[in-house]
Amino acid sequence: MINKTAHRGAYIHIPFCDHICYYCDFNKVFMKNQPVDDYLDALALEMKGYGADGLPETIYVGGGTPTALNEQQFERLFIDIEHYLMNPSIKEFTVEANPESLNEAKLKIMKRFGVTRLSVGVQTFDNRLLKEIGRAHGANDAANAVRLAQEHGFNNITLDLMFALPGQTETVLHESLERALSLGIPHISIYSLQLEPKTIFYNRMKSGTLKLPGEDFEADMYGQIILELEKHGLHHYEISNFAKPGYEGVHNSMYWHNEEYYGIGAGAHGYWKGIRYANAGPVKKYIEHVCKQGNARVSEHEVTFTEKMEEEMFLGLRLMRGVSVEHFKEKFGRPIEQVYGKQLEQLKARGLIHERDGRLAMTPKGVFLGNNVFEAFLIS
Amino acid sequence: MSEKQGTRQSRIRNFSIIAHIDHGKSTLADRILEATQALTQREMKAQMLDAMDLERERGITIKLNAVELNYTAPSGETYIFHLIDTPGHVDFSYEVSRSLAACEGALLVVDAAQGVEAQTLANVYLALENNLEIISIINKIDLPNADPDRVKQEIEDVIGLDASDAVLASAKTGIGTNEILEQIIEKIPAPSGDPNAPLQALIFDSLYDAYRGVVVYIRVVEGTVHVGDQIKMMANGKTFEVLEVGVATPKIESREELSVGDVGFLTASIKSVHDTQVGDTVTHAERPADKPLPGYRKMNPMVYCGLYPIDTARYDDLREALGRLELNDSALQYEPETSEALGFGFRCGFLGLLHMDIVQERLEREFNIDLIATAPSVIYNVKLTDGSSVRVGNPSEMPERKFIAEVEEPYVKATIMTPNDYVGSIMELCQRKRGEFKTMEYLDANRTNVIYDLPLSEIMYDFFDILKSSTKGYASLDYEMDGYRVSDLLKMDILLNGEKVDALSVIVHQEFAYDRGKAIVEKLKELIPRQQFEVPIQAAIGQKIISRSTIKALRKNVLAKCYGGDVSRKRKLLEKQKEGKKRMKAVGSVEVPQEAFMAVFRMSQDD
């Protein structure tokens, strides 16, 4: 088996928020009274360790809310990144920003340290919905934040949007898409609301006070999104992602290409030297672990050969261009038909996937039923 | 009779405890075990007599058991108690009657707040039929809402027992236990019988043990049985050599012999519980008794359903598991059957619904076989136009209408005890369930027995649930079989995606066919998940579609969520989805979940 040089990314997690959104189940805490400086110390230590293993080609700082850090903390984070991880030939350096905490000073810091791409958490441009999902900003704040960033020379901006929100109509969705497109940004990620345990929405659902749109409505909206964004030149390249040509997310594409990456920070997940690992989630635990052992891994799993093939498929097929038959054979030393012959035949018969130009990809129908397609590639 | 045996026999007291579920039977049994120091505290497990997990979880005892206890009275005399446990559900009323027949007395336990319930009453009647001395115990008197005077009055009015010396007790705290023990000695007669007479021992339970063969629980009524004796089962004439006799204290103790009044067990290399039917009489092969003890009845299953492994490859495992259960369960019957929809499985016969649930649960839990159970059915007597007749226990095997002269279905006589306030709604319910009113008995100022003849199939359906919910849980039900009657019954088929699914066929009364059809179709629509294509569901009688609905095609099932690098979470989600599918059965091209097959039968009141 030939293992081509793994593309190597680094994900850095900032778990702090000024504000907790009603749908969010990521690892995050209220910023107030948190040992933020100690956390940044620990982060630096962890970065140092991974950096010694090789510098990443992409960096992605996510959260939480990275921009919730104050200016000193924010700058200090970038100094550490530059010191331990920065690769002079870096391909992409993305930072997540929330409209209410993105300001000129932070933009200047990011520019200075070579950030190439911003991901702005907008979710929707409807003020009533923003309130409903617990966001701290208004629709105009989001638009202003994007303009401010553009004025500071950030042209590669992606917006995070959401659909299937409680009370969201097709018109409201349409207006949000229009407003996003009017900002001239080259990339949009759009996620459907997932109800997850330990969120405010989940509790509301259980008490019967939350009304979510049903499956049919969700399907309609998804169809509408693909149509509208494609029409405006943002092509659908992954289930939830749309970009102008050349602006596809490099770091995220690495996940879908089943490549390896460092996961740094509380609750971060990484994949390195064949091992998928998870860091301790609680901030204090994370700091303790890093101080004691230099990293914060609390679970590790060595990916088996079979699992690696499964992941190659259920991650790779998320991309509209799909999986290269040739690449599969090269990577795993056997033809894909030998491993998945029966599944491929069935999925083709059901009209969920097709093979074109040596690539296996989902059909438009398959995209809507992606989980049924992915499931088929689990062998065990 | 030797003097020693005579004295011993005069000190034996055999009794059972009669109580409604939750009225405190097991706790009282524990107190008696404690008082007789049968167990040290360390050995004492709460509710000792309920052996299997399943029983403990359900709070009811299904396997009978008996213990021998030595009780030293304050007078200094030592007595031998045999406490015989009884099952607490109406499915097992025959077994209850046989355990009671092994006793001279019974402790009637009534909850000081809830009072007498229908099932308790039914069991008290069984005890009176067996001429048992009854000691009334009003339990849980320490509860804040206890009303012992009212309950005393109820025992006198409703049951007709003298409750003037009923024991006020709390089995939980031990209040009244000494008085109960004294009354057992004073009131319950010692067994009569001649230890030298030909042997008559009543079988009241048996269980299969992998090492010893069948362990037969007996009460010796006449004569004496020794190790080495040749014994004969009077029902089928089979003979065996006794290898072991003994008692449980509750630890197993071997003895040389069991004589008049003794309650214990014997083993004799018996291979099958089918040779040791409850209620049968054990006698000696050489010097048999001239007749068996009265009351023996062969038990026939009342309810049938099809059991199929979801994974067709596990058919042999299912066969083996049923075989293992059958070793211990003489009422369970099964034979192979084939369903177009479900493949190879077994048609199984049970005493009732509880029995069915227990067997299913044990198959799933103890043998790890995921099952599809078809809706239970009663046995119909079908007279054909050519003059012949068939018995049908599987709705899909009901002959075509043109060949049927008439169909008979089993009826029960149902006794429902209820507070007066609910008589109206109960009669309405019985009427709706094709009941025929028989009579009403006013038990006291507050309560009434409503007696109806009802089709057994209607009792199996949602009757009990509706009864409980429409009477706030106050009404209780007891029933007994009451022969067959001609009814206007039809077979209703269910079609999924245009194909008839034999495992979903049901027998319905003509008058209710439309409503049932509609309810089933709607329920299936709710339970069967969306498929990749639209699935029509239809209910049909013969060629005629009487109800239809459609499951819309699955439109979106893709996770559009930002998971970042958390691949293990994505994987778990897909694995869970895949696991869920394993619990579904592909019927044609439609994935049908396990519970859908029962849905044609189990529906709530609102449906």
TrEMBL record, chain A:
* A Pfam family matched in the record: HemN_C
Q: Where is the Radical SAM core domain?
A: 2-230
Question: Which stretch is the leader sequence?
Answer: none
Q: Kindly give the SMART domains that the UniProt entry links to this protein.
A: Elp3 (SM00729)
Q: Does the keyword Chaperone apply?
A: yes
Among CDD domains, the record links this protein to: Radical_SAM (cd01335)
Query: Which keywords does UniProt give here?
Result: 4Fe-4S, Chaperone, Cytoplasm, Heme, Iron, Iron-sulfur, Metal-binding, S-adenosyl-L-methionine
Q: Which InterPro entries does this entry report, sorted A to Z?
A: Coproporphyrinogen-III_oxidase, Elp3/MiaA/NifB-like_rSAM, HemN_C, HemW-like, rSAM, rSAM_horseshoe, rSAM_sf
Q: Where in the cell is it found?
A: Cytoplasm
Name the predominant localization: cytoplasm
Which family would the database say this protein is a member of?
Belongs to the anaerobic coproporphyrinogen-III oxidase family. HemW subfamily.
Q: Which NCBIfam families match?
A: hemN_rel
What is the role of this chain? Probably acts as a heme chaperone, transferring heme to an unknown acceptor. Binds one molecule of heme per monomer, possibly covalently. Binds 1 [4Fe-4S] cluster. The cluster is coordinated with 3 cysteines and an exchangeable S-adenosyl-L-methionine.
Q: Which protein, by its recorded name, is this?
A: Heme chaperone HemW
Q: What organism does the record attribute this protein to?
A: Sporolactobacillus shoreicorticis
Q: Which gene encodes it?
A: hemW
TrEMBL record, chain B:
Alphabetized, the UniProt keywords read: Cell membrane, Elongation factor, GTP-binding, Hydrolase, Membrane, Nucleotide-binding, Protein biosynthesis
- Reactions it catalyzes: GTP + H2O = GDP + phosphate + H(+)
For this chain, one GO molecular function annotation is: translation elongation factor activity
PROSITE patterns linked: G_TR_1, G_TR_2
Q: How does it sit in the membrane?
A: Peripheral membrane protein
Entry EC number(s): 3.6.5.n1
Compartment(s): Cell membrane
Pfam family name, one: EFG_C
Which HAMAP family does this one have? LepA (MF_00071)
**PANTHER family xrefs:** TRANSLATION FACTOR GUF1 HOMOLOG, CHLOROPLASTIC (PTHR43512:SF4), TRANSLATION FACTOR GUF1-RELATED (PTHR43512)
Please identify the protein, giving its name as recorded: Elongation factor 4
Source species, please?
Sporolactobacillus shoreicorticis
Q: Which gene encodes it?
A: lepA
